[in-house]
């Protein structure tokens, strides 16, 4: 164990790893939260982004499963391996023999918020049950984000094609095209986000409401994109408050 967590490998590649944070007492444990970091799905952005949040959640009584995955700009990163890695990392939870029910809450930020929402539609491939998904400043529309050139073609690099070449691939991995949802979602976004357009989240929520989906939304006044990496900001405190309700 190093820095308060134990690292597990769920595959043979260096990036196929996860950090497990254990609460002080399993008897009073509140459950397990899986964290998925953002960063345009690209290396070198990594799970270390979520360390401060992981420590706060562990101190509050949760097991925390902070996952890494193969990313764009490293070997075999991007479609399909990025997506397969996220599923494999979550499935590895079933091998841990933790003294708690295998009901998992997923928290994802930015590109990780996109992966978290997408995971909600993969239950038939998962060995654990997802109770709720928290998407923080998520990328919700891959077609719109590609057209807006989010992160200098981050979506095109992730999916290795364009909407004109393979629209079905975009729709298969785009949360707005996957609605209605089966796993309850909570979406939190700052109105001053400088990286991911909050207007796309508004469109996502409009479609979710029209379909009568189990999706709740909170918008943080003057909230910025990276606020969710700091456990003391209003953005992250909003997440913590939702977790207390679960």
UniProtKB/TrEMBL annotation:
InterPro entries: AB_hydrolase_fold, BD-FAE-like_dom, GDXG_lipolytic_enzyme
Keyword field contains Cell membrane: no
UniProt domain BD-FAE-like: residue ranges: 19-205
Keywords: Hydrolase
An annotated Gene Ontology molecular function: hydrolase activity
Lineage: superkingdom: Bacteria
The UniProt record lists the keyword Plastid: no
Name this polypeptide is given: Alpha/beta hydrolase
Species for this entry: Vibrio viridaestus
């Amino acid at each position: 164990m190093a820095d308060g967590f134990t690292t597990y490998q769920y595959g043979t590649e260096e990036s196929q790893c996860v950090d497990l944070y254990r609460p002080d007492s399993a008897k009073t444990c509140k459950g397990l939260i899986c964290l998925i970091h953002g960063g345009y799905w690209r290396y070198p952005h990594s799970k270390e982004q979520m360390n401060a949040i992981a420590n706060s959640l562990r101190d509050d009584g949760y097991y925390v499963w902070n996952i890494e995955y193969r990313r764009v700009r490293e070997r075999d990163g991007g479609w399909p391996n990025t997506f397969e890695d996220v599923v494999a990392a979550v499935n590895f939870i079933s091998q841990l023999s933790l003294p708690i029910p295998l009901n998992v809450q997923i928290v994802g930020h930015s590109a990780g918020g996109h992966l978290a929402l997408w995971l909600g539609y993969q239950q038939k491939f998962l060995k654990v049950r997802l109770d709720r998904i928290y998407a923080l400043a998520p990328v919700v529309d891959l077609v719109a984000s590609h057209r807006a050139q989010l992160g200098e073609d981050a979506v095109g690099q992730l999916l290795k094609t364009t909407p004109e070449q393979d629209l079905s691939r975009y729709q298969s991995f785009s949360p707005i095209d996957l609605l209605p949802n089966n796993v309850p979602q909570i979406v939190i976004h700052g109105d001053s986000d400088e990286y991911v357009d909050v207007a796309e989240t508004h469109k996502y929520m409009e479609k979710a409401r029209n379909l009568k989906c189990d999706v709740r939304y909170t918008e943080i006044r003057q909230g910025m994109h990276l606020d969710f990496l700091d456990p003391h900001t209003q953005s992250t405190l909003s997440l913590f408050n939702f977790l207390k309700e679960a």
